[in-house]
UniProtKB/TrEMBL annotation:
Top-level taxon of the source organism: Eukaryota
Keywords (A to Z) from UniProt: Repeat
4Fe-4S keyword on record: no
Record organism: Lophiostoma macrostomum CBS 122681
Official protein name in the record: Nephrocystin 3-like N-terminal domain-containing protein
């Protein structure tokens, strides 16, 4: 979905659809591992409203009229309800019709919505059903286009179908690319090639197809799975053992992470946690950070010294740290 969001062709098509009218775009990515606002209808509405109003502040007085009793009497800690947000959303779209605006919303991960989201009264829907009802309301407005993505769960396939021109099935679109990556990565590994040469009866193509079927279009899953198989070769696994190893891997990406972390040796767990946290918090990839990771117990001295390190010392630090991170994180981080 990120690829669609950032693809230049998307905006060309949106402007072709909108003509001379202004297009307001907003995105929301449901995330099951996040806070409630990251996986709920409440969070979806708040995020889409916020992004839309930032792009067209003139809508604010219509969406949240200052003379409305609920706003004029509201305190700083006022909490919106889903109902109030839906009403505000409809006001935004209704006024958008009058202003000849166009809206495009990209909503990813419908299957990651929290089913336990609190209902405001017993007649309310929650979770997936509330989301589906909300999207139905969206679709009543011709000035709005919505792009949705989800795993192929029955509830969403029933509502939106699973075939047709309005659908993209990721696992079919990416299968050739995933196969190219899988074959290329395995075939350039000399140890894997030696195994294939030794056992001509092994059905290599079947192994590749099993990887593709299990991936279900998720490229990251394939990368992790192939790395896992190659590490099995380092552990002395034969071809049939690799096939069994593949069968033990979880299909779900989050469970795959758990599976990989469960294989980290106990003495490396603390370091693995430290490295993962550092990678999550650092976006600059500064070489000083790599030296810090490499230096272990001597990090203070190394950090003081790192500006005067020679190129050879930097290269050595980079290579050594890569080995250490790989040992601790089992392929979840790369240098």
């Amino acid at each position: 979905m990120r690829s669609i969001e950032t693809h230049p062709g998307l905006y060309k098509l949106l402007h072709k659809w909108a003509g001379d009218n202004k297009v307001i775009t907003a995105t929301y990515y449901f995330w099951s591992a996040g806070q409630l606002l990251e996986k709920s209808v409440m969070g979806l509405l708040r995020s889409l409203l916020h992004q839309s109003l930032l792009q067209h502040p003139g809508l604010l007085e219509w969406v949240f009229p200052i003379d409305a009793p609920e706003w004029s009497m509201a305190s700083a800690d006022y909490e919106f309800t889903v109902l109030k947000l839906r009403e505000a959303f409809k006001r935004m779209l209704n006024h958008g019709v009058r202003l000849q605006l166009r809206f495009f919303f990209l909503i990813d991960g419908l299957d990651e919505i929290d089913q336990r989201e609190k209902k405001e009264d017993e007649s309310d829907l929650k979770g997936q059903h509330a989301l589906i009802e909300l999207v139905r309301d969206f679709s009543e407005y011709p000035i709005l286009r919505v792009c949705l993505s989800s795993r192929p769960w029955n509830i969403f396939e029933k509502e939106y179908g699973c075939e047709g021109r309005s659908h993209l099935q990721l696992h079919k679109i990416t299968r050739n690319d995933i196969e190219t990556y899988t074959r290329g990565t395995l075939e350039k590994d000399m140890a894997f090639q030696e195994l294939i040469e030794r056992d001509k009866s092994f059905k290599y193509g079947q192994l590749v197809n099993e990887i593709l079927d299990a991936a279900n279009g998720v490229f990251l899953w394939v990368q992790l799975a192939v790395r896992n198989l190659l590490s099995g070769i380092d552990d002395g696994n034969g071809l049939y053992e690799l096939q069994e190893r593949l069968h033990t891997l979880p299909f779900d990406l989050h469970k795959m992470y758990d599976h990989i972390l469960s294989t980290v040796e106990p003495e490396y767990l603390e370091l693995a946690g430290r490295y993962l946290l550092m990678a999550a918090s650092d976006t600059t990839h500064d070489l000083g950070l790599m030296v810090f990771l490499y230096s272990g117990k001597q990090e203070s001295a190394m950090l003081t010294k790192h500006e005067s390190l020679t190129l050879e010392e930097y290269v050595h630090a980079h290579i050594s740290m890569g080995k250490k991170i790989n040992a601790c994180c089992k392929g979840l981080l790369e240098v």
